[in-house]
Amino acid sequence: MDFVMKQALGGATKDMGKMLGGEEEKAPDAQKKEEERQEALRQQEEERKAKHARMEAEREKVRQQIRDKYGLKKKEEKEAEEKAALEQPCEGSLTRPKKAIPAGCGDEEEEEEESILDTVLKYLPGPLQDMFKK
Fold first, then answer.
1. In angstroms, rounded to a whole number, what is the distance separating the alpha carbons of residues 118 and 101?
2. Are 31 and 37 in contact (CB under 8 A)?
3. What is the DSSP letter of 19?
4. Which of 49, 68, 71, 50 is nearest to 60 (CA)?
5. Other residues' Cβ atoms within 10 Å of the Cβ of residue 96
6. Tens-place pLDDT, residues 58-86
7. Is the pLDDT of residue 48 over 90?
8. What is the CA 127 to chain-centroid distance, rounded?
9. Where is this region: Disordered (predicted)?
10. Mean pLDDT across the chain, nearest whole number?
11. Region at 41 (left for phi over 0; alpha for psi -120 to 50; beta for the rest)
């Protein structure tokens, strides 16, 4: 039976063995070609990365020219300035953080309320002052 199959297929039996799961015979040049192909891929990848780095450098140069022309700042510079501004104590500012309030400033709320009430009572007529004092 094998003889008949070999005769019918001719030289295709080698390929049949490969298709059916047999081991492939590798040519000695195949390994060398594969190494050359891998090296070519590495080289192409390096060229691509270099090209993208050049393009990004050119873009950054244009961005910087625009920033200089219009007096703009980079995001990183803006964020750094904002952080520095927040860290500095803001005396007299209404929006200062709670940590920047000097010690003793927020402890006297009740006394201030009493003094305000006393100040208001001074301007009321006499009978109303008596009413509020009781």
1. 27
2. no
3. H
4. 68
5. 14
6. 999 999 999 999 988 888 888 888 888 77
7. yes
8. 69
9. 1-114
10. 77
11. alpha
Q: Which amino acid is at 24?
A: E
Q: What is the pTM of this model?
A: 0.40
Helices 109-123 and 126-133, axial angle in degrees (round to 10): 150
User: Does residue 8 have a pLDDT over 90?
Assistant: no
Q: Which residue has the tokens 């803006």?
A: 78
- Domain residue limits, the chain: 34-85
Q: Which tokens sit at 98?
A: 């709670």
| Pair 100, 90: CB distance under 8 Å | yes
b/e 16-34 (16+ beta carbons within 10 angstroms → b): eeeeeeeeeeeeeeeeeee
Helices (H), the chain: 2-9, 13-19, 28-70, 75-87, 109-123, 126-133
All residues at 6 or more sequence positions from 24 whose CB lies less than 8 Å from its CB, including other chains: 18
Residue for token pair 């008596």 = 130
Asked whether 43 and 36 are in contact (CB, 8 A), the reply is no
CB count within 10 Å of CB 72 equals: 12
